[in-house]
Design goal:
Length: 222
């Protein structure tokens, strides 16, 4: 494998990390006490020329865990007004996480990466809910880094001058329907597009691969 090909593979781009875009809808802001109600994951891939693209998608409506707090304002905000309704087709959070983690580990191995890293808009929020639900479910094989994330709110502020997801997408030329927003499936797909656009825009501007320092050779990531 030559140097150019090596640089155009996913494991080279993020230091061996496998980026996975996540969005959650919840019944409040406290990851320890408030219910996780919806979760979606989008895995990413690179084409032969090194452009980042969305790949696999997995989405679940989630039933509130036993004893979970449900904040009325949060339910009105995300439109999940009847979280216990059978019509939601909700699954237990343990099942949702197990299936998502299974997909992530499979794709991570296929890309030759060592660990996954969560990509999310205001990532600390989503990361905290996933970690809390993982702990409640007593799942041992969490593929995500315990504290490192890629936050598209911060990246959008740098690259686009916007931090709100809808405004960042529109500034980047990504169609965003406010009527579809606050659905984990919709928001994750848009966040994935946004992250790919920012990463690919940096590449177009010549920021990747990085230039070697004086006296150093180009990094090959082997």
């Amino acid at each position: 494998m030559n140097q150019e090909t090596t640089l155009n593979i996913l494991k080279s781009r993020f230091r061996g990390y496998f980026p996975v875009v996540i969005d959650v809808e919840t019944a409040g802001f406290n990851a320890k006490t408030d219910a996780l109600l919806e979760i979606c994951a989008v895995t990413l891939k690179m084409d032969e020329e090194g452009w980042l693209l969305s790949d696999k998608t997995l989405h679940f409506h989630v039933a509130p865990f036993e004893g979970a707090n449900l904040e009325k304002a949060a339910l009105e905000f995300n439109g999940i007004c009847e979280p216990f309704s059978l019509l939601r087709g909700a699954v237990e959070e343990k099942y949702a996480l197990k299936e998502i983690f299974k997909l992530i580990r499979k794709e991570q191995r296929a890309q030759g990466c060592q660990r996954s890293i969560m990509v999310a808009h205001n990532a600390n929020f989503d990361h905290s809910f996933v970690m809390a639900a993982t702990e409640r479910s007593q799942l041992k094989r969490n593929p995500f880094h315990p504290f490192v994330t890629f936050d598209t709110a911060a990246l959008s502020g740098l690259a686009l001058g916007q931090t709100v997801l809808a405004k960042a997408c529109k500034t980047a030329g990504i169609v965003f329907d406010n009527h579809e927003a606050h659905s984990a499936l919709y928001d994750t797909k848009r966040t994935a597009e946004l992250f790919c656009e920012i990463v690919n825009r940096w590449k177009k501007m010549g920021g990747w691969p990085t230039l070697p320092l004086e006296g150093e050779s180009v990094r090959t990531f082997t």
